[in-house]
TrEMBL record:
It comes from Luteibacter rhizovicinus DSM 16549. It catalyses: ATP + protein L-histidine = ADP + protein N-phospho-L-histidine. Pfam families: HAMP, HATPase_c, HisKA. This is histidine kinase. It comes from the Bacteria.
Amino acid sequence: MPKSIASRLYLIIFTGLLLAHGMSFGLLFFERYQSAKTVMLNTLEHDVGTSVAILDRLPAAERPAWLGRLQRDNYRYILGPGQGGTDPISDRARVVTGLIQREVGPSFAVKANTVAMGPERYQVHLTLHDGAPLAIEVTPRVMPLADWLPFVFILQMIVLVVITWLAVRLATRPLVRLARAAESITPTNEGPRMAEDGPTEVAQAAVAFNAMQDRIALYVKERLQILAAISHDLQTPITRMRLRAEALDDSQERGKLLQDLHEMEHLVREGVAYARSAHGATETPRKIDPAAFVESLVFDYQDTGKAVSLSGSVDGTAIVRPQALRRVLGNLIDNALKYAGTAEVGMARTAAGTLCIEVADRGPGIPEDELGRVLEPFYRLENSRNRDTGGTGLGLAIAAQLMLSIGGRLTLAARPGGGLIARVELP
């Protein structure tokens, strides 16, 4: 079976209609054939008796003039012995011979023989009362078909194709709309809502989809509010604890306590940042020069003495959300600098018009089976408990969430020769 539902429906509906149409056409053709055969035999039976009686009563000199008048499409009369041949070998020839014998009566001795088989042609022989031989040559013919029948058949096939196309389109169009709406769904409920009209089943699915989208937006909003509240409530006690720790005498325990407080503040800020990353689409899109945008970002790192290089460029403009894009690229560059010491930024535009920005490094890289998992929140490759080396496990998750919220995509790939390539794609 084909892969798509539309192709399967095309195949099933068109095949079913074609089989039904073929069966109807075959039955009608068979019924017409049987009717024509019955009419031909009845006509032959009665007409031959009358014709033989006429020829039997006419003078021998006048009989040739009547042969053309008595001739029909599928049989004719021959004055004389006719042609010889084999005995009748077809059931149809035997039936016709019996009908003629019954019609002309027992006063005529009737016998038949086959003259040819391609097409079938046979002769029925009898002798008139004056001793003159008479032969009836019968040529059964296939029921003639009208000249316009092929055009009607072609028209019917066109109608079948059109009906199948309309049925499949009506059946699959709601699925296409549902798929597009699902692809464009956003955590902030800014995606297109499905029209709640059409057939009952389609309307119910649209209502359920819109309700699901509302629930997702509500859950994300509640998550942000909870994290914001936790962050706000933790800031005050953390600040008091830091002030009290700073008032203590210099000691090893004081330094450890301040370090723990610093990690707590960092973790709270990153948690809130991840929650807010789902709402990256709230920023108003602006038209920018992507080449100048990335160059300024790279130059900012270079001004601070960081080993960040830029290669490639793109022409034209792009409509993006600058703050979200800057945060994503900054996060990727910071990761490259952290684990490799250098970052290589490249730009290109694909044939489809997609803006592609890559951040590559020569660091330890990420195993192939871990490339997808590192984009999950709080997942760290390094098992170290030190936040300076292991991090919180939210950096790449925030970047991936931001790209998803603004309609882009973040992918990771192993770099040939060692290292990692982080690719940002924007339509």
